[in-house]
Design goal:
- Two copies of one chain form a homodimer.
- By secondary structure, chain A is α/β, with parallel strands linked by helices.
- The longest helix of chain A has 17 residues, at 14-30.
- In chain A, strands 2-1-3-4 form a four-stranded parallel sheet, sandwiched between helices.
- In chain A, helix 1 (14-30) links the parallel strand 1 (2-8) and strand 2 (37-42).
- Chain A has four helices and four strands; from the N terminus they run βαβαβαβα.
- Chains A and B meet through strand 1, helix 1, strand 3 and helix 4 of A and strand 1, helix 1, strand 3 and helix 4 of B.
Chain lengths: 122, 122
Amino acid sequence: MKALLLVAHGSRRKQSNDEVVLLAERLRKNCSEQYNIIHAGFLELAETLIPDGIKKCADDGATSIIVLPYFLNSGRHVVEDIPNIVKDTSPHYPGIDIKIAQHLGASDLMMDLLISSANSTS
Amino acid sequence: MKALLLVAHGSRRKQSNDEVVLLAERLRKNCSEQYNIIHAGFLELAETLIPDGIKKCADDGATSIIVLPYFLNSGRHVVEDIPNIVKDTSPHYPGIDIKIAQHLGASDLMMDLLISSANSTS
């Protein structure tokens, strides 16, 4: 059972957090063949926090979890905070393989996304 | 002469800003056929600010400028701040058609990008 945990920063603005939850729902509809379990999590300021997101995946029966940082820049949150939280949480789930994906901004597809967004205007 | 102004939030962390400038350089190398002029700009905290980015495009001979918000969420920055700055700056360039593209997070390709990033780990 493969799980995907989409992790955003979290905002004081509810609408921003709702967008991330909605994105996880869209992923769930579109990628259920690749990932049996998909949840959204937040680094701070919003529920569900990352450790609880990992617990949700585990409770759903995950045998592996990919933590996907929904961040554009490789800042402290991506380089330190998320890895540290995952490192602290992993020992509670010895039977689950938990890995962190590259953050969104590092994707090879970013060029295509930027050009597609730019062209959507003209 | 079509110009693309990639607009990020701007960070106190120099490396984050450098990543955006580097991304604009990569766009310049890959998309010079579609956009003759490509610059990076920032909403705050970093140079070049948006009005100066628009000026750079104008100085380079732009006849149209697409302002592309490098943001994941449709927060206040995307909905209010960037449009307001563009609205205030546009009258200084009456001969240039300045438009704002949808922010990155709204792209139809976001699903593909997320899945591609998740799969890069496994």
